[in-house]
């Protein structure tokens, strides 16, 4: 018995080396087995569905194939399945298929696949795929059809199978994707409804990532801050508030959990005109199945008038000295907050000015390209090296500057972009006057916000004297 098992394994290993198949004579010769013994083992493997047999005239060619036994398929398959014999006639149907197709067994059983009275099987491609599956070629197709007036989205798998008698066949496994498609459509509809809901809201709406950066904002918040969506994408949310309130908001968001998903707080801000304002923000966590905070939905509104009304009502019951002291203290706090905000803005502006100065006056040519390959930004050195003005750079592409890069090569570079990976090489640049110069290039991809840029730092290689 051990010898028989080893011979069977040897036959399968041999057929792995010859995908096109071998005859009995070639197998028995290669393994030094008697022809009748080889034929017996091949018949056993054929019945198990491990190999396929094709008759070419009087010769029989055997090859390794992955066929699933019909009994195994019907036992473990949870989806609707229809089994066809070598003549593409229905010989087996499970209950799930009858239920899905809303068709009685006597209509389907024994019929050719093209004769089944359903629109799904009228496509000529179905017959072709069934024939290929009988020959051992597995395939899959996504189709839309109507059954009983109901629109179905199906993924049809054409599987090569083998019957217990050793004969070949194919099975059509129908995976109903209708519910999944409908769920995706409902999700998209809910997203559109949500966007339509927040579009005209006067309250401020923001979505905050776990790292406290903004992922999306509505128009009301953009107008309130005097900034566009692109400017606020990736912006740190806490920087919108005074230093005294930042830590409280950070602690509140960190404390959110499925058991306590929301908290509300009032914060003091400085308006664009320098006035002190009050805002009420409600933060609600959005959690994953494991309780991890995925995002935070923040809803804010200006409550300055309400605060002022409460303050006025309180002041009416206090004497003039207390009122003056309170007003003085508020003004001092407001001035301190305003000075802090102004100082931070000045520091940021100085850093931006210095960065821009260093960028423009760098000794090397620096060019940033966007994902489409167009020049996003170039420093003065790049303009001097290539002969372009800042305005002319806006219509230039990477292919025009570096003629050694083709459109297909640029697409491959974008597809394999890895931020932070630097590359030094020699290349060529084309000046505005058409002259080609040789340059040393240091290039890398950089990610900022949700965008990817290609940074090229080049220096002309002067000829040796």
In words, what does this structure look like?
The chain is α+β, with helices and mostly antiparallel strands and 465 residues long. It folds into four domains: 2-64, Orthogonal Bundle (Arc Repressor Mutant, subunit A), CATH 1.10.10; 68-180, PAS domain (Beta-Lactamase), CATH 3.30.450; 202-301, Beta-Lactamase, CATH 3.30.450.20; 362-460, 2-Layer Sandwich (Beta-Lactamase), CATH 3.30.450. Helices cover 41% and strands 29% of the residues. The chain is built from 17 helices and 19 strands. Strands 4, 5, 6, 7, 8 and 9 form a six-stranded mixed β-sheet that branches. A hairpin with a 5-residue loop joins β13 and β14 (293-302). α1 (2-17) packs across α3 (35-48) and α2 packs across α3 (35-48). The longest helix is centred in the C-terminal third of the chain and has 41 residues, at 320-360. The model has no long low-confidence stretch (mean pLDDT 84).
């Amino acid at each position: 018995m051990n010898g028989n098992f080893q011979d069977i394994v040897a036959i399968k290993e041999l057929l792995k080396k010859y995908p096109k198949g071998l005859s009995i004579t070639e197998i028995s010769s290669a393994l030094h087995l008697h022809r009748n013994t080889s034929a017996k083992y091949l018949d056993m493997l054929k019945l198990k569905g491990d190999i396929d047999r094709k008759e070419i005239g009087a010769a029989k060619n055997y090859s390794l194939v992955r066929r699933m036994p019909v009994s195994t398929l019907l036992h473990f398959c949870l989806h609707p399945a229809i089994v066809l014999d070598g003549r593409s006639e229905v010989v087996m149907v499970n209950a799930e298929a009858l239920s899905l197709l809303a068709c009685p067994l006597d209509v389907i059983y024994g019929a050719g696949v093209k004769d089944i009275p359903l629109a799904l099987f009228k496509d000529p491609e179905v017959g072709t795929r069934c024939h290929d599956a009988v020959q051992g070629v597995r395939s899959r197709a996504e189709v839309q059809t109507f059954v009983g007036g109901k629109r179905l989205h199906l993924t049809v798998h054409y599987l090569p199978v083998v019957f217990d008698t050793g004969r070949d066949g194919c099975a059509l496994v129908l995976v109903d994707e209708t519910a999944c498609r409908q769920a995706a459509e409902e999700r998209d509809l809910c997203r559109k409804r949500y966007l339509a809901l927040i579009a005209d809201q006067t309250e401020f709406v923001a979505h905050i990532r776990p790292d406290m950066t903004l992922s999306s904002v509505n128009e009301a918040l953009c107008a309130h801050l005097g900034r566009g969506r692109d400017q606020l994408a990736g912006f740190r949310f806490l920087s919108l508030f005074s230093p005294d309130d930042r830590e409280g908001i950070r602690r509140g968001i960190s404390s959110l959990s499925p058991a306590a998903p929301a908290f509300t707080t009032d914060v003091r801000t400085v308006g664009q005109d320098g006035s002190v304002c009050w805002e009420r923000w409600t933060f609600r966590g959005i959690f994953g199945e494991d309780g991890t905070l995925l995002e935070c939905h923040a809803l804010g509104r200006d409550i300055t008038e309400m605060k002022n009304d409460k303050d006025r009502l309180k002041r009416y019951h206090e004497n003039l000295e207390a009122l003056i002291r309170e007003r003085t203290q508020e003004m001092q706090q407001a001035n301190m907050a305003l000075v802090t905000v102004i100082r931070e803005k000045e520091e940021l502006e100085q850093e931006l000015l210095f960065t821009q100065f260093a960028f423009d006056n760098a000794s090397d040519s620096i060019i940033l390209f966007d994902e489409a390959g167009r020049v996003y930004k170039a420093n003065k050195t790049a303009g001097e090296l290539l002969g372009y003005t800042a305005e002319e750079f806006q219509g230039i592409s990477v292919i025009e500057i570096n003629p050694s890069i083709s459109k297909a090569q640029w697409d491959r570079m974008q597809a394999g972009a890895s931020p932070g990976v630097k590359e030094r090489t020699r290349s060529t640049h084309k000046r505005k006057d058409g002259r080609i110069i040789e340059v040393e290039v240091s290039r890398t991809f950089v990610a900022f916000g949700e965008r990817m840029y290609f940074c090229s730092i080049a220096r002309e290689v002067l000829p040796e004297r």
